[in-house]
What we know:
Elements: H1 3-8, H2 18-21, H3 23-30, E1 39-46, E2 58-60, H4 64-73, E3 78-83, H5 101-112, E4 117-122, H6 144-161, E5 165-168, H7 175-185, E6 192-193, E7 196-198, H8 205-211, H9 230-244, E8 249-252, H10 258-267, E9 272-276, H11 281-302, E10 306-309, H12 312-324
Parallel strand pairs: 1-2, 1-3, 1-10, 3-4, 4-5, 5-6, 7-8, 8-9, 9-10
This protein binds zinc ion.
Residues 123, 125, 133, 169-170 line the site of zinc ion.
Amino acid sequence: MTVLAQRREGAFPDGINPSRARRTVRDLYTGPTLTAAALSAPLLALPDAGDPSALPGAAPLAGIPETVARWAGLGIRGLKLFAYGHDRDARATAATAPGNRMAAAVSIVKTTVPGMAVTTEVCGCSWTDHGECVLRTDEGAIDLDATYQLMGTMAVQHADAGADVVSPTAMLDGSIRAVRQALDDAGHRDVGVNPNLAIHTSLYGPFKSLMNTDPQSGHRRGLQLEPGRADRDTITQARRWINEGADSLTLQPVMTAVDVLVRLRDDQRVPIVAYSTSGEWGALRALGAAGMVEYLGMLKRAGADQVLTFAAETVAQHLEEVRSA
Ligand SMILES: [Zn+2]
């Protein structure tokens, strides 16, 4: 067969595909798999006595300016803020108290790096003394009205402090509508609502122990997706959230749910944040920086618009070093 005939059949007789042969052309067609702009970092606002070495992104309020300035310098443009709740009680009173740790942390981030996109966790579990995400009636049932009210008020408080997106974490039907309505009523129509699609997993452990958010009795499995059905239930729940007013979604964890991420991407066109949770951090560290880039690049390829990861700073630093090498 002549070379021309071989080319007509789509083969490259010398083994070289011209679209990949030259680096300039590779870069032209594909670009980098991953850039720092695709990474968001979890920021864990701790009490002064907390242990900032427990997870990357953990810091007392006084350490936040230095942390976010460093991230911004590496090209990271978004973070998700979690606050270690103080003055916890059965009704999560401090969750909506003026100037609480969450509101203070949002203000500090926005003062330090105004262009940083700030997403906040909206959930009861950091603020209830029983550690549950929801409020309960005296009879022990979920107090839906009170929980909706709590989540809506928290969301408005975070938006007032400067949050760009609020992320309701407890997967309680009706709560996204309640949060969207509360924001609209308060004039925050341009603040996004990014609910969680949380699959039950052992990979939340380090976060829960650092932030002390494990429920005192039982577990919160009733508010999470079952792993054995996550491929179907995640899609059902995502559609429900969109109907309730969500404009983006977070899927967690991802290391053990990439199949779900692919299906979710196929079904939804809204921005998807893939949250590589705290329990994935140990495995990521073992991969090393170059391996982390490959893993996070895979999540992008699987359909994530943003990857929220404890590896964000390490990876952004590595990408910077590779670029300037
Ligand atoms: Zn919670």
